[in-house]
Structures are given as C-alpha cells and as structure tokens.
Amino acid sequence: MNKDIKKIYEVDASQLKGSALDVVSPTNTEEVRRIITQTKNIVIRGAGTGLAGGCVPQHGSDVVLDMSKMDKISELDKERRTIEIEAGVILDDLQDYLSDFNLEFPVKPSSHAVVTIGGMIATDAVGNRAIKYRKTSDWIKWIEIIDSFGKVEKRGITELSDYSGMEGISGVIMRACLKLSPLKKRTATLLEVDNLDDVTSVVRKLKKNSAVSMIEFFDKEISKELGFDEHYHLIVEYEDDSGELKDKEYKKLLALRDKIYPFVADKGYTRIEDPKIMLDRFVKLMSWLESKNIPTFGHIGVGILHPCFNHEQEKYISEMMKLVKRLSGQISGEHGVGILKKEFVEMNDKKILINVKKRTDPLNKFNVGKVI
Ligand SMILES: Cc1cc2nc3c(=O)[nH]c(=O)nc-3n(C[C@H](O)[C@H](O)[C@H](O)COP(=O)(O)OP(=O)(O)OC[C@H]3O[C@@H](n4cnc5c(N)ncnc54)[C@H](O)[C@@H]3O)c2cc1C
Predict the structure, then answer these.
(1) In this structure, which residue's CA is closest to atom 5 in ligand 1?
(2) Average pLDDT, stretch 297-313?
(3) Contact by Cβ (8 Å): 366, 82
(4) Residue 125 CB–ligand 1 contact under 6 Å
(5) Where are the alpha helices (DSSP H) in the chain?
(6) Complete edge-to-edge strand list for the sheet that includes strand 62-66
(7) Which residue from 32, 180, 246, 258 has the fewest beta carbons nearer than 10 Å?
(8) CATH topology of domain 3-66
C-alpha cells in the first residue's frame, strides 16, 4: 500500500498517531474470514471518527481491517420497521435511503455524515437526540459477528453487550438488523441563559416535555466563537411545531452545531473528552472547567459534556477524571475508552472487560492494547 494512504489509517479523529503493518479493505464475508484466520493482530476500523484512539494501529505489527467497503443496504421490512445492513454503511447514506420510506435510524451522533453503523455499534454511540432515543444498542435487533477463529455467528439482544460498547475487542461486527422509527418533522429554539444554575433549572423543566428531542449546551466561550452573545446557550429541538426555528432556519442551526468539533480542533483544542454526570452535579463540574478556561459544550439533556483541552491543558485531564468520579459520574459517556482513557478505567470494570475479552477472543487477535 502507498505510504501516504497508509498514514490515513494510522490515525483517528483523536489525532493519536500509530503505525500499521498493513491495511486491508475486504468487500465480503469470505474475505474477512480469510484475513482473520491468516492474521495475528487485527485493528478494526469503521470511519475513523473515534475520539479515543480505538482504531489506531500500534507498534507497526497491527493489520488495519477497514470495514468501509462492507456497505450494502438490504432487506427493509417496512411493516416491522427494521432493516438489515452491513457494518460499513455510513449513517447519513442509510438516512437518505430511509427517507424515501418516511423512516429513520433515530440515534444521531454529530459525526453522522461519515460515521459507520459498525463503529456506532462497537462504541454504542449516543448522540444529540439521546434524551429521547437513548443509544445505538437500544435500536439493534441482532448483529452478525466473526470471531477470532473466523466463525460467523448471529447474536441477539441478550448477547449484544459482548460486542456493543466493547470497541472491537471481542470480534468483528459484520452485519446488523436495526430497528427504525418514523421520520419526524422537527423545529428548534436557541435559548440564551445567564448563569449555570439557570441552565440546570431550564434543562430540568425541558426534560419533562415529551416533544423535546435534543438539548445541547454551549458555554460562553463556545457561544462567542459560534457568533452568539457571550452567554450560555441551549439548542432545544422539538418534535412538533413549538420551536421558533423551522425548515431552513432549523437546519442552519443544527449545521452550526455539527461544526463545533472541527471548529475547536482548528483553534488547537484537539483533546475532546466526554464525561457524563447527573444534572445536579453539572454546576460543580462546569465551575471547575471554567476555572481552568476549558471551553465546553455537550448533550446536557443526558449529562454528557465535551470539555475541549488544548495541548497545554491536557495536564488537567486526570484531575478532571478524579472530580468526575468523585461526583459519581462516568469517565466516558459516548466516545469510549480506546487507548486514551485506559488509565482511568476502574479496577472492577477492568476485571469485567478482561473476562469478556477472554471469552469472546480467546486467540487475543482483535484490538489488542485497547480498552484494557
Ligand atoms: C465531529 C465528531 C462528532 C462526534 N459526535 C459524536 C456523538 O455525538 N456521539 C457519539 O457517540 N460519538 C461521537 N463522536 C465519536 C465517533 O464518531 C463515534 O465513536 C463513532 O461511533 C465511531 O464510529 P466510526 O465508524 O468512525 O468508528 P472508528 O472510529 O473507526 O472505530 C471506533 C471503535 O469501534 C471499533 N469498530 C469500528 N467498526 C467496527 C466493526 N465493524 N466491528 C467491531 N468493531 C468496530 C474500532 O475498532 C474502534 O475501537 C464524534 C466524533 C467526531 C469526530
């Protein structure tokens, strides 16, 4: 493989760089089986939008299994509202296909334009509409996987947790049957809020409204950079007509929201974290982040925040993780552990993950050195 192309596969959106022995891009199950049986160390890659280094090859000894060419959409069951697809299908391509049938896959990470369904299942991706539609695993009927011996098997809901959220350490997700939801007409309102306590009480009230499908938070710094006044802001999305912004205006606001990641990265804030905390602890965490000048946005409706650290501020990450744990929060609400957050995983969680790994990947082939 051309050296420059290989380099693309040696990094993910976290900008963590590794080195690969080779990159392979199979187009069918038989090819994947052959690669698995003939290869010692495999790192599975979807679109590479991960923010924890989960698909970054290491030590020059990993072969990158690029799943992006496994992208067939088949078997739409309109009555049951399910669809069978391959793991490399891009979420927005699926949405385009489904919109002709007035259906959608309702979990929407901000990386929706490029993210693969396999990557979403492996990280159990959450997203902007988690307040209403929770996470990817809630919308899966079954998956088809290949284990380290090259055996193809179906896994239903009861065995899903061995793969969903396991970040590829247990096997390759090949296909999935997804549950779908009717396509909704949505509107939104941009709210300006003066202080952090008010943010908490506004969010608490909004969460009681069943038409609300998204509550996104921006601190003063991010608001200013987005061209809003220097206050806190919330984007509130409704699945009815209550939002002030409709049609084009609504789409414009959501497109602005999707631009935040590349935007903060351009400003040098390349380490984007994803702690999850309860709403009543939000002010404590935010006050600490503000004391360190760390710009923050996030899915406040479900307590996931995205503090953005520049290189100089990365020294504060372990302090933040300690605070998150003290506040009974989680170190990762959606991006996963990958390589970058391994050191913060609690011993008890590690033991559970090691047991899953031993049971599902006895040959220790997949994503070795990740998560545990
Ligand atoms: C701009 C931006 C916005 C984002 N917004 C969100 C958000 O709103 N919500 C959210 O949850 N995340 C978000 N993310 C993070 C990222 O998009 C998700 O983690 C996503 O699910 C990763 O999918 P991917 O296809 O890019 O997978 P990759 O980055 O290629 O891989 C991620 C992990 O999944 C494993 N994997 C990939 N495919 C398979 C497979 N077929 N079988 C087994 N394992 C596999 C990899 O080995 C790796 O461990 C964002 C990232 C960016 C850059």
Answers:
(1) 110
(2) 97
(3) no
(4) yes
(5) 3-8, 29-38, 91-99, 117-123, 130-133, 196-206, 220-225, 247-258, 260-266, 282-291, 317-326, 347-360
(6) 20-24, 62-66, 42-45
(7) 246
(8) 3.30.43
pLDDT digits (tens, 9 = 90+) for 274-286: 999 999 999 999 9
Q: What are phi and psi of 173, to 5 degrees?
A: -85, 120
- Which of 111, 134, 334 gets mutated to test ligand 1 (max ligand atoms within 8 A of its CB)? 111
- State the closest ligand 1 atom to the C-alpha of 49, by its place in the atom list counted from 1: 26
Mean pLDDT of 306-323: 98
pLDDT in tens, 116-169: 999 999 999 998 999 999 999 999 999 999 999 999 999 999 999 999 999 999
pLDDT above 80 for 88: yes
Domain(s) labelled CATH 3.30.465.10 in the chain stretch across 79-183
CA distances to 7, 46, 273 from 68, in Å: 16, 6, 26
| 176 within ligand 1 shell (Cβ under 6 A) | no
Q: What residue type is 129 in one-letter code? A: R
Q: Give residue 332's Cα distance to chain centre.
A: 10
Q: Which of 27, 29, 49 best tests ligand 1's pocket when mutated (most atoms within 8 Å of CB)?
A: 49
Residue 1 has pLDDT above 80, yes or no: no
Percent of the chain with pLDDT over 90: 95
Confidence tier at 3 by pLDDT (50, 70, 90): confident
Q: Which two tokens stand for residue 70?
A: 């496994």
**Comma-separated ranges of CATH 3.30.43.10 domains in the chain:** 3-66
Q: What is the mean pLDDT of residues 204-228?
A: 96
- The span from the CA of 39 to the CA of 23, in Å, is 12
Sign of CA dihedral 340, 326, 199, 245: positive
- What pLDDT is attached to residue 242? 96
Does the CB atom of residue 13 touch ligand 1 within 6 A?
Answer: yes
pLDDT band with cut points at 50, 70 and 90 for residue 26: very high
Structure token pair of residue 59: 């030590």
What's the pTM?
0.97
- Inter-residue contact 363 to 171 (CB < 8 Å): no
* pLDDT value for 4: 83
